[in-house]
Amino acid sequence: xxxxxxxxxxxxxxxxxxxxxxxxxxxxxxxxxxxxxxxxxxxxxxxxxxxxxxxxxxxxxxxxxxxxxxxxxxxxxxxxx
Length: 81
What we know:
Layout: E1 4-10, E2 15-21, E3 24-36, E4 47-55, H1 56-65, E5 71-76
Antiparallel strand pairs: 1-3, 1-5, 2-3, 3-4
């Protein structure tokens, strides 16, 4: 199972672009989430910065309602590479 849940603040306004998909235009939203660390050590950053990508209806929702500094919860899966 690959499930990630994070709560944090948007670092900047989401970047939205539209790409040609199989059924016409497809919305793609990218944003960075600053998630506070539970335990802080001397000399280390206080937050982790998570790059997020969403598609289709979720991307359209992000474009319409989310702005820099808003606190949001994200549920998704982690992909690397």
